[in-house]
Design a protein that fits this description.
Blueprint (H helix, E strand, L loop, with lengths): L5 H63 L7 E2 L19 E6 L7 H8 L10 E3 L5 E3 L17 E6 L10 H18 L6 E3 H5 L5 H5 L1 H16 L3
Parallel strand pairs: 1-4, 2-5, 2-6, 3-5
Antiparallel strand pairs: 3-4
Helix pairs in contact: 3-6
Length: about 230
């Protein structure tokens, strides 16, 4: 039997009011969370857009610089012809890494490899080849793609290094020139030693063989690049 007394009516009214307050608080909480979520999403979108714009500006700056870099006199510039895959003439989209390779034929010279790249039926090339006597030949312009680093050809500079035997160990003359060239490239493109990678780091291919098999020697190489970079500061 329903109690219609004053006290009962007041009690029911308080319960209804309490439910209404709780309902309003829940609606308000939901509204606050919705606004916060929208604001967070907007901040992320703006931040992402700003980062992309910053990367785009940096890439444009790098490529503009790549078109105007004066190559040091210790580099022998012998640009190969545009004839398909080896040198397509297509422009880089950015320069994010310097990729180190080793040549496929032990005992061959920098000139041997440069001339191989220049054949009309060759499908591979690199921006630079470092020879057994420490000579360095540039084969592809610094604002163009080479054909050395698979899907990373569009945003990397490639360096092939000659080696005397199947072990893939670079001799001292080649090693010293590689460090000098890599440090110079890092300096020119605003990179550091951590931006120097192996072909192995892209595809898992054992290239450069010795430095893919010996992680400690690879770290030593990067540290030597860092030391050389210090000469520019």
């Amino acid at each position: 039997m329903t109690d219609y007394s004053y006290a009962a009516r007041m009690k029911r009214r308080k319960r209804r009011r309490r439910k209404l307050i709780i309902k309003r608080l829940l609606c308000l909480s939901f509204l606050v969370l919705l606004i916060a979520s929208i604001c967070y999403g907007a901040v992320r979108i703006i931040g992402s857009k700003n980062r992309e714009e910053s990367k785009s500006i940096q890439a444009e700056s790098q490529l503009q610089k790549a078109s105007n870099i004066t190559v040091p006199d210790w580099v022998d510039v012998q640009i190969i012809k545009i004839h398909g895959t080896a040198r397509s003439g297509k422009k880089l989209t950015a320069v994010k890494n310097i990729v180190i390779h080793y040549v496929g034929n032990p005992g061959t010279t920098a000139q041997n490899n440069r001339d191989f790249f220049d054949k009309s039926d060759t499908e591979v090339s690199s921006h630079f080849v470092v020879g057994l006597d420490g000579e360095i030949i540039q084969c592809v312009p610094l604002n163009e793609k080479s054909a050395a680093s698979n899907w990373r050809n569009s945003d990397t500079i490639s360096v092939e290094v000659c080696h005397p035997d199947e072990s893939g160990v670079f001799n001292q003359a080649s090693y010293n020139s590689l460090i000098r060239l890599t440090a110079w490239l890092c300096h020119e493109f605003g990179l550091d030693e951590e931006d120097v990678i192996r072909h192995y780091d892209i595809t898992g291919k054992m290239c450069p063989l010795y430095y893919a098999e010996h992680e400690d020697k690879w770290e030593d190489l990067k540290n030597d690049v860092k030391k050389e970079l210090g000469e520019y500061n």
